[in-house]
Write a structure and sequence with these properties.
This protein is mainly alpha-helical. It is built from eleven helices and no strands. Helix content is 81%, strand content 0%.
Length: 280
């Protein structure tokens, strides 16, 4: 992909890792998520009246992505309740590029080049290795289960949004409606489930939630806009370099380990990302 687009995706990756660290570091991951994804919904409200509706061809993808995103939020919060940021995040983001490559080929006819295939494979291998733990996974089996489920959701909404944004004339209209619908649906489900406890947690965590919401909105806006211009698989894989940042944040802010094996895995991720940036 062009260098300027690659830089934008990497900036979005840094933002993405940051709001995930905010969720993991909060008292209640689910409540922090309500605010992080509620803020973009509020930001979208003034845009809705001045933007045209997304083209009808994009509506099925918008509806599907809204539901998939809510499932993603729930599984991600569950993973962070039982596992480390540096375990859940790498596994979830690591399996997504491979699945996106398969789905983009199946639904959009995007045939990856050999270099892109090697890049996707290296990024995915390195990211999954970052989530490895000595002594095997039994102690973390619940976290790994939710991480895999999260990764499946990531790949599904990535392809759905990539297909949807290509079927509307104004990508910002799609983005605004996506933020509004998913934020409203997720907040409604969470409040109905947790009741007044959610409001009390929001009072305590509002600074974390508002800041995370702003960078979350900026991050995904960049990614969706870039997906309207380039192939889905390399964009998805390059974005997943955020796991290096997440692993470092887990070490410096949350006291999680980042040993020699994870350092080597991070180098593998960077090598794969370099191949992807050159492949276009």
């Amino acid at each position: 992909m062009p260098f300027d687009l690659a830089v934008l995706v990497l900036i979005a990756a840094a933002m993405h890792a940051s709001w995930n660290a905010l969720i993991k570091g909060g008292r209640d991951p689910l409540t922090v998520q309500v605010m992080i994804f509620g803020v973009p919904a509020v930001m979208a409200v003034p845009l809705i009246p001045i933007l045209p509706l997304p083209d009808p061809a994009s509506w099925p993808f918008l509806a599907a992505s809204t539901v998939i995103h809510v499932a993603y939020y729930i599984s991600l919060a569950a993973g962070y309740r039982v596992g480390d940021l540096s375990l859940v995040y790498p596994i979830a983001r690591g399996i997504a590029p491979v699945l996106v490559t398969v789905l983009a080929l199946a639904f959009e006819g995007e045939v990856p080049t050999p270099i892109q295939l090697v890049g996707v494979a290296l990024v995915s291998l390195g990211i999954i290795s970052l989530g490895a733990r000595r002594g095997g996974p039994p102690r973390h089996r619940h976290a790994i289960f939710f991480a895999i489920l999260t990764g499946i959701c990531i790949s599904a909404y990535t392809v759905s949004d990539g297909m949807g944004v290509r079927r509307t004339a104004i990508p910002l209209s799609y983005i605004a409606w996506l933020f509004l619908l998913q934020g409203f649906l997720f907040a409604t489900i969470t409040v109905a489930w947790r009741g007044r406890a959610v409001l009390e947690s929001m009072r305590l965590e509002w600074r974390r939630g508002v800041f995370g919401g702003v960078i979350s909105a900026l991050s995904y806006t960049i990614v969706i806009w870039v997906m309207s211009l380039g192939a889905l698989a390399p964009i998805s894989a390059l974005r997943e370099t955020s796991v290096i940042i997440a692993a470092l944040l887990g070490t410096t802010l949350l006291g999680e380990p980042f040993g020699r094996a994870r350092f080597v895995a991070a180098i593998v991720v960077c090598a794969g990302a370099a191949l992807l940036s050159l492949a276009g």
